[in-house]
Amino acid sequence: MKKFLLCILLLVLPLPAYGSPAEPAPVAAEIPFRPDTAYLADRQALDRLQRDAFRYIWEDGCPVSGMAYESVGAGDFTPVTTGGTGFGIAAIVVATDRGWITREQALARLQTITAFLRDKTARKQYHGAFPHWIDGKTGATIPFGKNDTGADIVETALLMQGLLIARAYFNGPGVEETLRSVITELWEGIDWDWFTNGENSGLYWHWNPDTGFSHGLRILGYNEGFIAYILALSSPTNPVSSSAYDYWTSDKSYQPKELYGYTVAASLPGGGPLFVSQYPFIGLDPRRMADPFVPGGYFTRNVKHTLSNRGYCLYNAPSRNRYSPALWGLTASQIKGGYAANEPSRDSGTIAPTAALSSMPYTPHYSMQVLENLDGPLRENVWGKNGPYDAFSLRDNWFSNSYLAIDQLTMVGMVENYRSGLLWNLLMQDKDVRIGLQVAGITDPQLEEGFPEAVVTLVRKGKGYVADAYDIRRHPDTGLFMIPYWAEDEGEVRFTFHAAGGDEIRSVTETAAKGRNVLTFPQFMPPDGAVLTLTMHKNGKTYSLPVRLH
């Protein structure tokens, strides 16, 4: 049971300078600090963001197939998108759980989507897989590019991620059982092993009945193809072998990289767009994933990747790009005159709101700073019916007025994972997925005692970087601060907060379980920007973390 030892400052009035001895001066206790309700503004902003973005599929989806259009507001060319629909299905689960739509409404839409996928598409010709783009009326394949005219196994995986989440969520009888049956039929119908081309050494991204594997693009880590390998290993009917997964991890991009002061495991040379830390983790819970390549865990990896992207924007990008703590985040998006996979090594001066906002589980305070800016001073230029538009550039005075499914719908799911962990919990309970993770050698992290997941932000100093603080704000739904920590074994842990001058201002004691724990506590002082030292005391050992409470 937690014990909160509140400091009470005593004010003693001095004796009069003359006259008869006075009575002992009264002792006045300082009025206890009462937490404010500022965190409720965060809750309202996140509600607004999620609900607006959800409209992308719910109100502006294809009326025939029920699927998500590739884009909304960008013109008459409107194929439906396979991966984006996977994100949309996850968003429908979120909307159901939050009560924005009824369970019956959700089931009706999901029945439409799954029936269309089963009966209208070319999946049987494609060994159970789906193309990137589909005609939402007929089910015919629409070429995504010159060499992408058939099955796309990564888009298929992103779709199945959403469907498996829905299968886990809608666990009741009747119509829900029927939905699960159709999803299982689609899931078990994918011949993942076919996409190794008989070589058993990696998945091929594309296949076409006419040209086969002539495109020759094998999926090599690290990128969003991670989800394809996990699901390919998870298949109960046509899985790939562990040797195929070995190909995925064989590239130098699975080695750590130094990115703007952060050591990022399994990283592309320049870090890559932020979507690689988001798309596979709509359902995969990075807090429960570590392997020999990412021993510190995929959650910490994703946090550092996000912080490095932000660090580039703040300290290394050209000043004319006009990035700031309230405007950062590079990922694939529309740009002026086209589309690009923006990243630090390929910076077009374009901000995609989804970059920072879909990073909410990793950098909640910094992501909220961006949301406050988009939903505040910039709202008139960057926000529409379905939430923030896809992208904009202050440098070029260019603002998109349309949306992309893969950017808009990702925000619904990733924000929900920050708020409740709903989608993470659903996919990680799937027995097939658990088997796939096991075959991949991915296990729960076993981290050192202390604060290994609380990554301290770095700031630029001269030509290098120095540690600043772990910036956190209260959770929007509980009003509590939350800091993850690890314990080597079960037992009592004491936490102390010290001001910069060394004075102890708060102490908390609780019983920790072995492994991952979360320290939660209410606001106990005004958010004055001061850096406090949080110290964990356990079995005679101490571990310290500089924190800034917002």
UniProtKB/TrEMBL annotation:
Signal peptide coordinates: 1-19
Transmembrane feature ranges: none
Keyword Signal: yes
Keyword Signal: yes
Domain Glycoamylase-like stretches: 218-429
InterPro entries per record: Glycoamylase-like_cons_dom (IPR019282)
Keywords: Signal
Name listed for the protein in its UniProt record: Glycoamylase-like domain-containing protein
Natural source organism: uncultured delta proteobacterium
